[in-house]
Amino acid sequence: MIGVSPPSKVAVVGVGTTKFGRRLDATHPDLAWEATKRALEMAGIWIDDVDAVVYGTMDPFDGVAAPERWDSAAYGAGRGSGKPIIKVTTGGTTGMSIALLAHALVASGKYDVVLATGVQKVSENIEAQQVLNTAVDPLTDRPLGIGAIAVGAMQASAYYFKYNRRIEEYMALVASKNRINALRNPVSHLQIRLTPEEALMSPYLIWPVKLADSCPSSDGAVSVVMVSDRAAKRIGNAHAWVKAVDYIADTYWFGTKSDPADWTNLALLARRIYRKAGVRDPYRFFDVMELYDAFSIQEILEYEALNLAPPGQGTRLLEEGVTEFHGQLPVSPSGGVLSSNPVGVTGLWRFAEAALQVMGRAGEHQVKGVQRALAHAWGGALQFHALAILSSSPE
Questions:
Q1: pLDDT score at 2
Q2: Considering the chain, what is the average pLDDT of its residues?
Q3: Distant-in-sequence contacts of 187-191, Cβ < 8 A, 24+ apart
Q4: Which of 1, 91, 252, 299 would be a feasible disulfide site paired with 379, CB 3.0-4.6 Å?
Q5: Helices marked H in the chain — which ranges?
Q6: Spatial contact of 282 and 291, defined as CB atoms under 8 Å apart
Q7: 13, 237 contact by CB (below 8 A)
């Protein structure tokens, strides 16, 4: 640590990811160590070189009290290490909030090396939907049992009536695309070769959302090492530079939001971060995107909110194969949230996967020639969104 210094550019130099799934073979601290060890090894540093830690999880899903105490001790940043630790919990955006806060600590000049880490182990607690039901209005919504699936279904049904009566067919294309992408990613939870026809035949959860349109609940951990431009000079690895980050929040209650067929708060955030990064045409600017698609309808809404297509026209990108792995703008080549969802870590995984693509270290699911990537996460009752732009160049 060097104390408060002039603002710095920020680079990602290390990424560590566990295998996602029902990890009965590992405890909370085991997962934390598994991811952090890999991130530190990629960065070529020790935990002693880390100045501060930003940690996140969705505690209600795991039923573990103060997991940051146990997890930080697992990788040597616990009590007695003298390292400051900040804990973050913001629903589904928790993971991206971890990344944004770690970025801020480095960009401010406060620290040179910050570890961003998130851990989730939902397999040890009750069904996640029961926990998610507490995020809605206790008088009007909670008695109905509303959870994430109901929210996704309301988005899909609104899109059906406003824009496209064939939306189920397009949702099946998203489900198939991302599950096939996941086959290239060994850490993915679901390893399924799913055709659009098979996705259409899967059972309904809440119309028009089917089982194939929905993400799993996963255990897992992700760690990312971020450093200042000063520290980056000492590390010879390929870097992914954080070009811009931003966050937005709106009304807490889902029932008071605008039309669910349009993700207006995400569209507002996108315009804001595009101005920061000088993005005029996102379709041409980005080489890859890692989007938070807990339900297949959401990827289509995100195409439109991110200005890749006009409202109601996001389905055209699927028709033309634009967002497929070998398309003009691959979306979620990792397999996305539809294939792995360790909730409080998922946003950090989007950030980490975008960084790996820029660094050219994504393995079998590496997209050729990636120079700029976008990472996205949403959380809460659809009220939180976070975006990050990563680049191979610090400029």
A1: 46
A2: 92
A3: 187/17, 187/18, 187/19, 187/20, 187/220, 187/340, 188/20, 188/334, 188/335, 188/339, 188/340, 189/20, 189/21, 189/216, 189/218, 189/220, 189/339, 189/340, 189/341, 190/216, 190/335, 190/338, 190/339, 190/340
A4: 91
A5: 28-43, 59-62, 67-74, 94-107, 128-132, 148-162, 167-182, 196-201, 229-232, 264-277, 282-285, 296-305, 315-319, 346-359
A6: no
A7: yes
Beta bridge partners of residue 85, listed in sequence order: 53
Q: Return left, alpha or beta for 67; rule: phi > 0 is left, psi -120 to 50 is alpha, else beta.
A: alpha
Residue 288 half-sphere exposure, CB side, CA atoms within 13 Å?
31
Q: What is the DSSP string of 73-138?
A: HHTT-STTS---EEEE-BTBTHHHHHHHHHHHHHHTTS-SEEEEEEEEEGGGSS-HHHHHGGGS-T
3-state SS of 322-336? Answer: CCCCCCCCCECCCCC
What confidence score (pLDDT) does residue 125 get? 75
Question: Among positive and negative, which fits the CA dihedral 129, 132, 138, 139?
Answer: negative
pLDDT tens digits, 125-159: 766 666 666 666 777 777 776 778 888 999 999 99
Residue type present at position 186? P
pLDDT tens digit sequence for 240-270:
999 999 999 987 677 677 789 999 999 999 9
Taking 70 as the threshold, does the pLDDT of residue 24 lie above it? Answer: yes
Question: Is 91's pLDDT higher than 70?
Answer: yes
Regarding predicted confidence, which is higher, 60 or 300?
A: 300
State both tokens at 62.
């795991």
Q: Which residues contact 73 (CB under 8 A, 6 or more apart)?
A: 29, 79
d(CA 245, CA 387): 6
Q: How is residue 234 written in tokens? A: 């000492």
Q: Hey, what are 374's tokens?
A: 């976008």
Token pair recorded at residue 382:
């659809």
- Give the predicted TM-score (pTM) of the model: 0.95
pLDDT tens column, 214-224? 999 999 999 99
